[in-house]
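Hi all, posting the design record for the shared folder.

TITLE: backbone redesign
STEP: 1 of 1
STRUCTURE INPUT:
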């Protein structure tokens, strides 16, 4: 279990690490690492591998919004059924069950604020068990999944010495 956890911690930070590199870092045989990863993929512990992209540097101006959703839980299934209906929409990136005032937090992407507004008004808010929503638009990403988006600006002031 400890080896698997250590493998997960390493590939969570850098999914491009090869089995050979992981084996070297963990001081185990490469076949052990390969088998452990294959088993974790089979057991759905590892669900996939993502790339974190700075779309702004590609000139893409998409919009991300975080939507707080208040819902009425259903008998027998609680929040699961409504969460499943929401996460099946293609605009939805993440759905979380939350503590506090709102029940679900939904992360949505679109090409414009109008796209996100259309999603909220035409798809999300009209679902049967949704009582209300509050939409927060992401203005700037500073850090995501351990990656910092802004490179620190170089200090261009002259050094003053006594």
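Okay, here is what came back for every position:
SEQUENCE:
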């Amino acid at each position: 279990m400890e080896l698997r956890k250590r493998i997960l911690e390493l590939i969570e930070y850098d999914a491009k690490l090869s089995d050979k590199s992981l084996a070297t870092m963990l001081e185990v045989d490469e076949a052990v690492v390969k088998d452990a990863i294959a088993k974790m993929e089979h057991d759905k512990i590892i669900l996939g591998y993502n790339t974190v992209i700075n779309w702004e540097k590609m000139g893409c101006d998409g919009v991300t919004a975080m939507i707080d959703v208040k819902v009425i839980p259903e008998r027998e299934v609680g929040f699961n059924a409504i969460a499943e209906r929401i996460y099946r929409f293609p605009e939805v990136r993440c759905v979380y069950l939350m503590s506090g005032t709102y029940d679900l937090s939904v992360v949505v992407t679109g090409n414009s604020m109008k796209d996100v507004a259309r999603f909220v008004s035409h798809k999300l808010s009209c679902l049967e068990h949704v009582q209300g929503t509050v939409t927060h638009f992401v203005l700037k990403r500073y850090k995501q999944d351990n990656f910092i988006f802004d490179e620190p600006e170089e200090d261009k002031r002259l050094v003053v010495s006594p």
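COMMENT: The two ends are 59 Å apart (CA to CA).
Let me know if anyone wants the other runs.
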